[in-house]
Specification:
single chain; 327 residues; alpha/beta; Quinone Oxidoreductase, Chain A, domain 1; Rossmann fold; 6-stranded parallel sheet; 9 helices; 29% helix
Length: 327
Amino acid sequence: MKALVYNTFGGPEVLEYREIADPVIGPNEVLIRMKAIGLNFADVYRRKGNYHLAGQPPYILGYEGAGIVKQVGKDVHGIQVGDHLAFADVPFANAELVAVPLDKAIPLPDSISFEDASSVLLQGLTAHYLTKDSYAVKTNDVVLVHAAAGGVGQLLIQIAKLLGGKVIGLTSSKEKAMVAQEAGADNVFLYSDDWKLAVLEETNGKGVDVVYESVGSTLMDSFAVTRIGGTVVFYGMAGGDPVAIDPRMLMDTSKTLTGGDLWNVLTSLEQRVTRSSELFQWMEEGKVRVSKPTIFALHDGQEAHRYLESRKSTGKILLIPSNGETI
């Protein structure tokens, strides 16, 4: 099979598209012929060597995608050759064929395309647990979303609105502000403006009920615009490491700081299927809309990585294997 691999850490130029051996599935795995693969910043971090990688090179990036079952392990029941499956956390996805453990295989309804599944699963399941578990958004809650035009940001906006919240978005440009507004944000402010003052004015000086904080370096600013007794959900640090938090501040303001990591939630097949089924249902009902992704051929992986790192994208970036060009 063909795959996007790399032997040394570095920039996009270390990626090579070449022939490697097909994966051999175990008794509790299925072999999927990939039709669409999600590209995420975690892939960039792994390519650079920021994340620890097990095994020896050549390394294969990718953890998210969708495709058609080609082969079924001898102990697998309920899945047949030809079924449509997706996954959010299976390694070595930047390839034409991927071995997927049964407990990580998410069935795709007929109404959800490979492209939509690969665009929404990782980011959609993240937005799902953030709004359902980390802080359960309620009717009339005022929600502040950082990086509101990003993939997770757009989904956070839509799900928070679906659950009855009022959403304020933060973005870096007027163009991205329009994207956040199209996703349903009630108001959007730019990081270059005095956004803390604007958020406080928007909430009549009270502050928001919850902040979804994915920048990191803005953590204390997020606390500054959170109401007494409110919550900051920290789930990313795209803008740099956060400062240390003084527990005394939390006590004095009755504010809550909580963290979020999808892998602490997706701990079983039941969790994967239950959460993805609700996400897919919202999509089928038109309550959650997935923005059109930017598509690169898998063999153009270098260009896809450069585009992701440019931060010009506002939605998902997909890699399409040559065998999966018809979606």
